[in-house]
Amino acid sequence: MTAPAVPQPAVPDLAPAAPETAVPESAVPQDLHAELLDCLQVNLAWLARSEHGVSPLALGARLEFAPREDAPGALPTVEPATGTHVEHTAAALGLLVTSRVTLPPGTGTPPADPGTVYVVADAFHLPWVPYHGHAHMDHSFLLGRDAAGRAVVRDGYHNDTPYGPARPGTWTLTEAELAAALPGGARAFRVAPAGPPQDATAVVPATAAAVETYVRAYREHPDREAALARLTLETWLLTRARRLHAAHRAAAGIPAPGAEEHVASWGKLAEQTFLAHRRVQRGRPEPAGPLQRLAELLHADTRVFAAPDAGGADDGALRTVVAEEAAAVLRVTAAELLAGRPLTEVPGFGSFRMVDIVERVEERLRVEFDADDLVPENLHDLDGLCRIAARAHRETP
Question: How far apart are CA 300 and CA 206, in angstroms?
Fold first, then answer.
């Protein structure tokens, strides 16, 4: 089950068009959820789904607002650095990056060992993406060989771009075509299973200070066209991340009342920001609404996705958090526990698992349980855990 569809503006990101050499779209896993993933996530997700049976929705488990600055005075961005993004995406899917290889410029041959390699290259030169010949940016694809030894490219990215629709597909390239697609070389990654995906649901609240700093940087930037161009991409990335998180919660049966309307509001903001950028490009006045709405929606993330912060939480939010942490330890869904399944009926539940649950809840809520509360009658069911968690939350400064 996916999150509600959110209209997306045309933004500078890449994805494969559908040239005549593409195989039918049925070759792509139907549950890839490509429309929810960015151009680096999607192909690791395809690899994890096809070869290791991992749901791509594991990438939506954690929602965090963590903007960074590439340089002093630069506009902050929620887009992670490529290397960091690849590592974190692999880990969230239960994969480990086992090797990194730099492919020389103009090479027509991937690393000699068999199997599929995950490649990051410059989309400007990739003939199957709409941005071919138009923009330089990192883009991923999967590279392997067919039975005849020919290079086979798989690219799962899905988006509508200014240069046409981008849809998942598979392409067979000659050695000359592959060499021409990599005139500047590329980075190739091998991955292997490392354990279960990191799919415990978590929301890291955006602090008021972080939101204010982020929004102020875009509001006060002297080059309004540059600021709005970047903000168009930012709101698109923020929207896509929230769609993915909502889809993860829906698939896991974790309630988030109001999520559909909230995610739709993010989609509208992305469109509004894109239109504001186009107006400024044409020398027209800049609308004031997008930046104000951006701050409002960032603050609303925590409320909608029921993640308590240090200042307090309602009973429903706290109960959801406790259920999520207990479910992660016991390897069941939070929905089962919220529906009333006793902890004692879950196979494997015992004193060691109780300790793990207590420690996870304390860390998630940033509290410490009273020692007198850690008795079996409080730890064998969700109601008891919620009761002592609420007490600890109220008593924590």
Answer: 9
Q: Give the C-alpha separation, 166 to 130, whole Å.
A: 7
Q: Which residues of the chain have pLDDT under 50?
A: 1-26, 307-314
- pLDDT the model gives residue 23: 39
Question: Are 17 and 130 a contacting pair, CB within 8 Å?
Answer: yes
- Separation of alpha carbons 341 and 326, rounded Å: 12
What residue has token string 């007198």?
372
pTM of this structure: 0.72
